[in-house]
Amino acid sequence: MIKIGIIGATGYAGAECIRILSGHPGFDVSCVVSKTFEGQKISDVYPNLAGLCDLVCEALDYDAIIAKADCFITALPHAASQNAVHQLITAGKKVVDLSADYRYSSSSLYTDTYGLPHKYPELLEQAVYGIPELNRDIIKNAGLVANPGCYPTCAILGIAPLLVNDLIEFDSINISAVSGVSGAGRKATLSYSYCETDGDFAPYKITGHRHTTEIEEQLSILSRKTVIIGFTPHLAPFKRGMSATIYTHAKTTLSTDKLIDIYNVYYKDDVFIRIKEGGAIPSVKAVAGTNFADITPVYDERLKRIIVVSAIDNLGKGAASQAVQNLNLMYGYTETDGLLRAGLYI
Amino acid sequence: MIKIGIIGATGYAGAECIRILSGHPGFDVSCVVSKTFEGQKISDVYPNLAGLCDLVCEALDYDAIIAKADCFITALPHAASQNAVHQLITAGKKVVDLSADYRYSSSSLYTDTYGLPHKYPELLEQAVYGIPELNRDIIKNAGLVANPGCYPTCAILGIAPLLVNDLIEFDSINISAVSGVSGAGRKATLSYSYCETDGDFAPYKITGHRHTTEIEEQLSILSRKTVIIGFTPHLAPFKRGMSATIYTHAKTTLSTDKLIDIYNVYYKDDVFIRIKEGGAIPSVKAVAGTNFADITPVYDERLKRIIVVSAIDNLGKGAASQAVQNLNLMYGYTETDGLLRAGLYI
Amino acid sequence: MIKIGIIGATGYAGAECIRILSGHPGFDVSCVVSKTFEGQKISDVYPNLAGLCDLVCEALDYDAIIAKADCFITALPHAASQNAVHQLITAGKKVVDLSADYRYSSSSLYTDTYGLPHKYPELLEQAVYGIPELNRDIIKNAGLVANPGCYPTCAILGIAPLLVNDLIEFDSINISAVSGVSGAGRKATLSYSYCETDGDFAPYKITGHRHTTEIEEQLSILSRKTVIIGFTPHLAPFKRGMSATIYTHAKTTLSTDKLIDIYNVYYKDDVFIRIKEGGAIPSVKAVAGTNFADITPVYDERLKRIIVVSAIDNLGKGAASQAVQNLNLMYGYTETDGLLRAGLYI
Amino acid sequence: MIKIGIIGATGYAGAECIRILSGHPGFDVSCVVSKTFEGQKISDVYPNLAGLCDLVCEALDYDAIIAKADCFITALPHAASQNAVHQLITAGKKVVDLSADYRYSSSSLYTDTYGLPHKYPELLEQAVYGIPELNRDIIKNAGLVANPGCYPTCAILGIAPLLVNDLIEFDSINISAVSGVSGAGRKATLSYSYCETDGDFAPYKITGHRHTTEIEEQLSILSRKTVIIGFTPHLAPFKRGMSATIYTHAKTTLSTDKLIDIYNVYYKDDVFIRIKEGGAIPSVKAVAGTNFADITPVYDERLKRIIVVSAIDNLGKGAASQAVQNLNLMYGYTETDGLLRAGLYI
To answer: Does B346 contact D at CB distance below 8 Å?
Structure first.
């Protein structure tokens, strides 16, 4: 059993890592770090874990924790991860980092987006962008995987087949996306309180959301052209899940059936990508609690557009379960180990 | 007091009309028609109405009901309204029709969209499209008002200032809209049951929703050009409310502040349109239960786009309260009578 | 128009008072006090109020505010209200206090329950317990009305007819009650965040909730005996509303029909009490947003029990609208002024 | 691998069985029966199952299905199960029946409760009541297990330690319980539609719910006395989960700590029972999606009562996962196989 330490264990993504790993045949959560809940059992903070993981949260003392695990998942806010990852990598540990700190290929784009210098540009170069469906082979040999953002995962998986097959105008991509409330993280904030959020719906950061540049960079790498996108996120009253409706202009006349074939071919080796057919539309509930991404393309004859719908669990394929999928690759396990479980649906 | 009859009284829009009219100073609900609940008190079907409207639902017997009211609101499915409206108009009654049957200027567009012939094209010509903010004067003299669809109301109010001021490319409008579940009507359908809907989110009718042509015709009338739009609706897990995020390409360089000025000027006489400023974003909860439309335009410098957010209550400004606003105009009352109430918010 | 000042205007109960009073024919909100949001428009904090009440929140400066209103609603936490009410009463103003500070007949019971001394026991004696259905006449002449707690309102209205008619064993009352999340107030608390609350259900303060003694004192006054009750509150995932299922042992053999008659007689002059008949069961949604209390008694033949179900809106009849009902009485208005509106239901 | 057939596969409990078994090391779902969805893939009806179980639903043709599985779970409505179970047992198959048809020890109690004769009283005698924590040993050898009702599971597990240890008055048990909406099953019913259910809360079947006699019989068997209970269920707006607050009168003076010790001893060998300590209160979300029952007793000094809170997932420990727990015992597997997974919590 490989021993995994979770830093930032009591945030939603950290706790979801523990939940998934508690049923994994090859990994064992050996150490959980939480500043806020130091000294408390993780299962007192998350009562669903009682009997499955009852470790006590400890402080972020590198000397103490480095001895306790072979590999770490860092689930810290951006900025805080820069140094944490550096310490762990320097100590010879493998790391999957859930923050944005190691997702960009250059420190300048990071700085432009997050308004911070990057202290470890050399580590940035080592980091591998962790979408297994796109980067499977390099993830296998990576020591540091930058786990993608939730919106980027959802959008990139939806758009990749169009770009790679040169089916759309490069400057026509407009992503209208919706996240459940867990995307805002676990914190005491008035605007995410039950009474404020339930029954409500609205966009936020209508232009300029930070995930825009992350999506653009990855799509540019994929297509070997400079891709500029429109991206507007919305908040909807559900806990988990994320849906992107992606509007693009087709280069040529197509059909929905033809598009579905193209998507099936593109993702033929990817168990966690389910292309919906026959009019079925990806919906948040079908993927909630899982590592699946449900995707379908639709051809709009009247306007010569391709509209792609992509749904993931923001805490799953958008964070924790994708981290475990990356860990499986990094440690030579079967990619689906511990992850082939159906979501609850109801 | 003007006596109002409600046909289709036990659907969500019909019942909402009763709710609003039960507090109106100039109208009195005198007759409620419901096939399904004939013989039952409306307040047994909708217990919120107990003590406020306890009328017994009656069958759709024109001879009986025509004597009971001065004016009718028809809240029937499309197709069924064609004949109902004809009977009532022929009997000399004023009508506000909530269906799609009288919303188009030509029977051919109606037939293309709804797949049905129109039996009363001459009535279609008399009907006035009932958005008071656009058609106030002609509504005042109308005998038949076609109350607009919810998505069209939400979208048209958001787009009108852009088209009238010639600020956007006419072929660039893409509407990504979201409705609460009440938009599907009151019926026993598995797919709208609590367990299927709660926690879920997805688009539906990704292309080809019937409201597309209704929006296009009204925007074409407004702009005196042929406007073709993209329109994709989504279903979100809340009961009431509707939000549209409207993506367009600007003709010239603008700013959000400038746009807000333009919107404020355009809607300066319209009490029910609230232009949100200072970064405030329209949200469903702020308008739920009311006749308000909250709107804000945002200029996207990077992509030279104008994004407009528009939020209404699909049962309110999108149906019942807009019907009452139309009735106020048709009967010479103050336009806001019975409608100037704050929504619950919580 | 009587001018009303609201102290604690940005809490849920305070804002609900503004919402209700914004449509009232005889009262005008002239002044809103909020420490946290001083200097901001109340309609920026509560966007549903935009265009209906756009007053700017001010600090709690007694000299400034006393001149601005004839009467005040104090919607402050307990303890804070003690002094606020004293200041306002001393300045000759009428007050409806929403806190627990003036609800008890003796300072000792207050101190036992809230762990605080009472600085103004002489005011405690003047204060009238504000359930109009029980204390209508003395409220009319009151200068200080202690607006009841939400659970006490819901429970007492359900139990009163049983005690007054001597139908149950006095020591047999067990109240199992459920509140929506707004009962916890408007605050940034992790445990009331959307992700923590949605989909969850549990009791809290299983014994010893503070409202226990408030209910006991009022029931004791009503029945002229010392009533001791069991009371367990629960939190359920909805925003507004409250339901109590009250279990009691009948003294004699009865029937549900007979009980309904007794309840109808007891509340024959009370517009806001709706006794549900014919198997209809009070539910939260039927009263949400209103001042109604829906109540039904059921006789359990097998166990010789009487079970009463009582539903109110915790922010309405349990707080703000009951405050307005009290104000109507205090100022000689019709008791239902501004309050006879149907709830949204959907 | 033991092959399992699911009859009634597209109901919520049936589909939950498939979800759980799809990750089980020793069972394989080999056959799914659904009248309504015959010919459709189960994963088209439940898209969460796509890629995990894509069997096609077949008709209830005993000749065809009997060859396909070693054992069957029957998830049919009561009455329909009588014959189905008889056919399967006669064909030599083991059966776990999720209906009420085989839960009673006598056909007369069944008939009194469900208003139907029992056609197979001899099978009723063979059937074992399937709460493993109480009947583990006889379940191991059973050919027919009657899987308990959800309310009975939740209530009996909460009360058993009190009765067995003779701590309470036998006639004092009053169960106030709350179920999520999935308890009503998967059907197109207006009263369980999203708009009717969301935001609402109310009791139903205030007296006389059918589970009353099931609970009474099992408690009577446990305590060897005739136990009569009060039981009132409520419906709350969440999908999964169930909570019972059980009010009883203590025979002697106790303490909460002492009670917790007693519960820990009673359930010391039961992995799926988690006794909450230190003030932690069982809540629905902590057990949703799992086979756990979270339970805590509280001693009410003032009234000399014991209040027990018990929470399960109505579809899990209250139906499908308890069925799998029973199957594990019937086939000699480790009792926790396939079931030791944390719930989602968020």
So the answer is: no
